[in-house]
Design goal:
By secondary structure, the protein is mainly alpha-helical. It has a domain of 101 residues. Helix 2 runs parallel beside helix 4. The termini are far apart. This is Tetratricopeptide repeat protein. InterPro entries: TPR-like_helical_dom_sf (IPR011990). It comes from Lampropedia puyangensis.
Length: 279
């Protein structure tokens, strides 16, 4: 018994001095403070608050705290830290927005395969959702393709560009009011994405025909919008290298030489410019 009493006295004194648990109302006020700190770019403060909220015994507050924590990293372009947080949250909530946060953050972190897998889960969650999701399918394809573009994954981005084309060509009108009612992204954002991706297609004349055909199938879109997209594509297309002159015929040596007479040059290290394109 004496040993048990001694252990009680040897406990960390700080344990009895911990601040009492905040009430639900106080924690919800902290959520507002976290949101405001994030909006103001006060990331250290937002992260400190989010970490406290993520451990809340109120489920919805804990979920929002974890979401804020992921957003703190995302807004600082710390995508590799953000996407595991979002993935843990998405496995808990199964919501469209949480899975899509995994899509964008994983893709921008260079984890293309994980982003692709998360996109499939986001689409499935969208199809199974009983509520109206905040993100439309068109928006999901647009933002995912933008993330792929930023990672120079142009071929994969073009797959989503093709889907966007089919979605917009089915619309009765493409004016801003109708797009907003249907929760579709603005057409100028879609055209900018298309121009950026097609600029890297390697066949600019065919890409230009693709854009012209798309424009002719849209209803209510001024031709000037398509012309602007073509100009954007042309301005971003890689410059075509000049045709090299024909190499001269090798000259015949005047006399044969032995290996001892020749100086064998050392091999030259080949280098490639692998710096990613930053937009």
């Amino acid at each position: 018994m004496w040993d048990r009493i001694k252990k009680l006295w040897q406990k960390d004194p700080s344990a009895s001095q911990q601040a009492p648990l905040l009430s639900e109302e106080e924690q919800r006020q902290m959520l507002d403070q976290t949101n405001e700190a994030l909006r103001q770019g006060q990331y250290d403060s937002a992260q400190h608050l989010a970490l406290q909220l993520a451990g809340s015994h109120f489920d919805d507050i804990a979920i929002n705290g974890q979401r804020f924590l992921g957003l703190v990293h995302f807004h600082q372009q710390q995508y590799a830290q953000a996407w595991p947080i979002f993935e843990s949250l998405a496995l808990r909530t199964h919501s469209v927005s949480d899975w899509f946060n995994v899509v964008t953050s994983a893709t921008l972190a260079g984890a293309i395969a994980q982003g692709t897998s998360a996109f499939e889960k986001a689409i499935k969650a969208h199809e199974e959702s009983l509520d109206t999701p905040g993100l439309s399918v068109a928006s999901m394809h647009l933002y995912y393709a933008c993330a792929l573009r930023d990672q120079n994954a142009f071929a994969q981005a073009f797959e989503h560009v093709q889907i966007l084309r089919a979605l917009y060509e089915k619309l009765p009108q493409t004016d801003a009011r109708l797009l907003d009612l249907r929760n579709f992204p603005r057409l100028d954002a879609v055209l900018d994405l298309m121009a950026d991706v097609l600029a890297q297609s390697g066949d600019i004349p065919e890409a230009q025909e693709w854009l012209l055909a798309f424009g002719s199938n849209l209803k209510g879109t001024p031709p000037a919008d398509i012309d602007r997209a073509i100009e954007r594509m042309l301005s971003q297309a890689p410059a075509t290298p000049p045709e090299s002159a024909e190499e001269p015929e090798p000259s015949v040596p005047a006399a044969l030489t032995t290996p001892r007479d020749r100086k064998i040059p050392l091999p030259v290290e080949l280098r490639e410019d692998k710096d990613p394109r930053l937009d």
